[in-house]
Amino acid sequence: MARITLEDLNGLDDESLDEDEEPMDGEEQNRLFSHWETVASTHQVTLPQEMAGPIMQMTQHSQVREPVPYVSLVQHEKCEERLYPAGKWACVTKGEPMYEQSISMGFMKLMRYICKENSTGRYLGMTVPVVNEIRLSEEGTELLRDVTTTYYLPGEFQPDPPLPTDPDIRIVERQPLRVLTRVFYGVTTEETILREIRLLWELLGSTDTVLRESYMVAAYENPSIPQRRNEIWFIRRAE
Q1: What pTM was computed for the model?
Q2: Adjacent-strand bridge partners of 216
Q3: What is the DSSP code (8-state) at residue 141?
Q4: Average pLDDT over residues 105-113
Q5: DSSP state of 48
Q6: Cα separation of 152 and 131, whole Å?
């Protein structure tokens, strides 16, 4: 399944289409779906026809994304320390052979949830970044298969999150999260993520203030952009 995320589906407000906005004709819909089939093929995944509706819905909304709120605590030379407040997230866990496949399949489930497959029947709007939770093997040399892809509920829905119709989606209330974060650009694969984890450990040196087995990867941009923005997050241990 295709890694359909972010820029082209950009995150988007929760208003309905303007009354005077022309709906896509069949040719336009086919062209849009074909575009995402091509994106899918680059990730060795298949785009199911059932995604045509959500793709069209998100594409037709205005290009507005709500940032996940945080407070910047310390700006180091090579990384930043942030505090993310408690909040509600929609989460899906997938364990495919490739990291890219897991996040693709997870986000497509979240995409359908965002596009009205929820208890309100409304388009919820997009937030960024989408955050992928990963764990390393005991040796620290490879990613474990299970990847949890998470979507922060927009502020309007934080008090009372819409319930998903998909039983694979869980609504989780996270406690405040303190992270050390470093930006990197390009593709996100197991190889590039392990490299970024090693680089940040080299910058931090020896410390036991962050977790060694769990990390997060924040995605901000469309995966078809070669030098897209990502972040690696190291999680501070609870004090």
Answers
A1: 0.86
A2: 133, 233
A3: S
A4: 92
A5: -
A6: 9
